[in-house]
Amino acid sequence: MLDYSHDDWKSRAAGLSFRGQAFIDGKFVDAESGKTFDSINPATGSVLTPVAECDAEDVNRAVTAARTAFEDGRWSRMAPGDRKAVMLKLADLIRDNLEEMALLDSLDMGKLITDAVTIDAPGSAHFFQWYAEAIDKVYDEVAPTGPGDLALVSRVPLGVVGAVTPWNFPLDMATWKAAAALAAGNSVVLKPAEQSPLSALRLAELAAEAGIPDGVFNVVPGFGVTAGKALGLHMDVDCLAFTGSTATGKMFMQYSGQSNLKQVWPETGGKSPNLVFADCEDLDAAADMAAFGIFFNQGEVCSANSRLYVERSIKDAFVEKLIARAQAMQPGDPLDPASKMGAIVDEKQTQGIMRFVEEGKKTANLVTGGDRVTVEGKGYFIQPTIFDDVAHDNPLARDEIFGPVLSVIPFDTEKQAVTMANDSVYGLAASVWTDNLSRACRVSDRLMAGTVSVNTVDALSAMTPFGGMKQSGFGRDLSLHSFEKYTALKTTWIKYKA
User: Fold this and answer.
1) DSSP 49-83
2) Which residues pair with 466 in a beta bridge?
3) Which residues does 419 contact at the CB level (< 8 Å), separation at least 6?
4) Cα–Cα distance between 150 and 488 in angstroms, integer?
5) Structural domains in the chain?
6) Residue 239 CA, distance from chain mean position
7) DSSP string over 239-307
8) Distance CA 28, CA 75 (A)
9) From the centroid of its chain, how far is CA 109?
10) Taking Cα atoms as reference points, which of 259, 265, 267, 191 lies closest to residue 223?
11) pLDDT tens digits for 210-253?
């Protein structure tokens, strides 16, 4: 499929069928109200399919099914080896349907098909396999007690996990939440973003085919103000995992206090700094990755390296390298393998990005891009955009734009660079470019970020936790640490005759 042409992908997309109903208790069902909303292809503006508009009643049906499944133990008390086998089969089914899963995300939110089929879809299969393999390799503890006492410390599933996921990586983010929660033995109710629900609904179908029992994995598409809020306020949801905006993450924290004090694990906004020092020997590699760090997925990445701090002595030459790379990354049809950037997810997001760009033109030096464009007269597309000599207090450098807009800020000293990088309400990720090992360690240690990547950007693996600090939230996805948010520590203390 890597050799598919533009026409090949368009032909395969035309042959797709879409699941638009909610998936509750092992069945596809309409919303109780009968309402639907349209899933839109942002590259063309055309309707893909109507989707069930779930609300509080549908969420309650899904939570009830999830609770029943958890309590009767059909999944929560299944032998670890059996749960592992089911999840491994699900990973295989994702691989068997890789082309379809990639197309669903590309059509639904505008990402490049080349990224969806080589990164997102295979990555989701990998994460399900990784957590499946971890199921029978995580041990409980025996506390060091005296004679006559045996204290067992176990990690037990919480019960019903609500997951609210964003539109920028629809399949990946659903997987990051669901794979760990299911591996731990929980039941899951997933509310995908209304802009991109289609791959989550297909994932539910594949999960059932793999053998995940009815009620254990449910998907309720709908809007945040109805379905999302209902999950946050539900008295029988034990944990809410969320990836999205900081403002919405704060709302879920409030919903917890207003309901049952459910655990809330937010992974929220970001404004990640990328620090390039003059002692970086391979400035071409740094420029390649700086462009990737902001223009990948149209800049619709919570950890996008959108603040670029460059040592003043190399700044002008480095910006010239970036301009050349940006100009070679113009947006095109997401289904065309030759395209370097896809579509912005919808009209609302496009307008929001352009407001930042238009204001930025008044306060900073626009060196490339800055225009909204169409492809064949259709769709929501924005050129890769770079502003140079941005003031550190400019909204371009302060606010999360969530689009292909880079702010370049010069610095003179290491201390100044670190101070500016840390001067943000966010702390999700950061990057450092230097060939001085002492500086790499020193700067990494001082940056307030959940992940610091040295001589690369956005380093990521199933083996390492992903999440942030400050108002980027405190939830952690990936790695064995994910089990910590989907389980509780339970002590069983046994007295016996020594």
Assistant:
1) EEEE-B-HHHHHHHHHHHHHHHHHTTTTTS-HHHH
2) 477
3) none
4) 19
5) 6-268+473-491 (3.40.605.10), 273-469 (3.40.309.10)
6) 18
7) EEEEES-HHHHHHHHHHHHHTT--EEEEE-----EEEE-TT-S-HHHHHHHHHHHHHGGGG--TT---E
8) 20
9) 13
10) 191
11) 999 999 999 999 999 999 999 999 999 999 999 999 999 999 99
Six-digit token pair at 7? 């026409």
- Phi, psi dihedral angles at 58 (to 5 degrees): -70, -40
| Higher-scoring residue by pLDDT: 3, 312 | 312
Instruction: Report the candidate in 289, 291, 287, 308 with the shortest Cα–Cα distance to residue 299.
Output: 291
Binned at pLDDT 50, 70 and 90, residue 430 comes out as: very high
| Confidence check: pLDDT of 2 > 90 | no
Tokens at 144, concatenated: 């060091």
Per-residue tokens: 453: 């990547």
Residue 413: partners with Cβ closer than 8 Å, 6 or more residues away:
none
> Which residue is listed with tokens 């064949």?
376
Question: Across residues 273-284, what is the average pLDDT?
Answer: 98
| The two three-digit tokens of residue 384, written as one number | 């890769």
The mean pLDDT of 364-371, rounded to a whole number, is 98
Burial class (CB in 10 A: 0-12, 13-18, 19+), 68: middle
pLDDT digits (tens, 9 = 90+) for 99-125: 999 999 999 999 999 999 999 999 999
267 labelled catalytic: yes
Q: Which of 267, 300, 311, 400 is catalytic?
A: 267
Of 399, 373, 466, 425, the C-alpha closest to 43 is 373
Tokens 């020594």 found at: 498
Say which DSSP state 430 is in.
E
257 contacts 237 by C-beta, under 8 angstroms: no
- Per the CB < 8 A criterion, the answer to whether 41 and 376 are in contact is no
CA dist 241 and 190 (Å) reads 9
- Rounded CA-CA distance 50/39 in Å is 6
CB atoms within 10 A of CB 3: 6
SS3 215: coil
Q: Is beta strand 273-276 parallel, antiparallel or unpaired with respect to 307-311?
A: parallel
Q: What is the CA radius of gyration of the chain?
A: 23
C-alpha–C-alpha distance, residues 440 and 435, integer Å? 8
Answer whether 231's CB lies under 8 Å from 189's CB.
yes
Q: Which of 54, 239, 280, 302 is catalytic?
A: 302
Distance, in Å, from the CA atom of 377 to the CA atom of 333, rounded to the nearest integer, reads: 11
Half-sphere exposure at residue 132, Cβ-oriented, CA atoms within 13 angstroms: 21
